[in-house]
Design goal:
single chain, Aminopeptidase, alpha+beta, binds coenzyme A, globular, 6 strands
Length: 137
């Protein structure tokens, strides 16, 4: 997928945090530590450092959600990470992002920590960041 398509999916899918724009995707894709894994309608963008990876962005096109698209993208991502020698994945997800938390739980990620008030939603409202992890080796 090209940065414009990734940004379009993000802009329509993200509800709980600011979506990445095309410039942010271009910058990430210029780094050789970035691994992008796509299906037709979903993607996972991970940063790889030695034997650890962090999922930095993941989304499915809202017109194709609950059809297993993001699950396929994540499984393919994990297969590729395993081949590169990665043994553990981390990510941060907004506490109020029920769909994403359900998704990650379904894929055997468990809570490893919490950052209170990490996301600022408005002048008055914040949300916690839940740190999740999964061993893959
Ligand atoms: C989270 C997201 C990627 C899931 O994409 P998807 O293609 O719909 O996911 P799948 O169809 O593979 O769903 C697999 C499982 O995830 C869980 N899940 C997915 N959407 C869910 C929802 N709205 N509520 C609760 N659980 C959900 C379910 O367990 C689901 O299995 P089921 O359909 O058999 O019940 C999608 O909702 C999305 O793009 N959200 C916005 C972006 C975002 O918040 N990304 C995470 C940033 S950390």
């Amino acid at each position: 997928m090209i940065p414009d398509r990734l940004a379009d999916i993000c802009a329509r899918a993200y509800r709980h945090m600011a979506p990445w724009d095309a410039t942010a995707f271009e910058a990430a894709l210029a780094q050789d530590t970035t691994q992008l894994t796509c299906t037709e309608h979903a993607f996972v963008l991970a940063q790889v450092v030695l034997d650890e990876a962090e999922i930095q962005a993941l989304a499915a096109d809202p017109d194709f959600q609950r059809k297993g698209e993001a699950s396929r993208a994540l499984r393919n991502c994990i297969d590729r990470l395993t081949q590169r020698g990665v043994t553990r994945i981390f990510l941060e997800v907004a506490a109020k992002n029920t769909p994403a938390r359900g998704f990650y739980a379904r894929h055997n990620f468990t809570q490893a920590g919490i950052r209170k008030g990490y996301y600022r939603l408005s002048a008055q409202e914040t949300d916690d960041a839940i740190i999740m992890t999964r061993e893959i080796a």
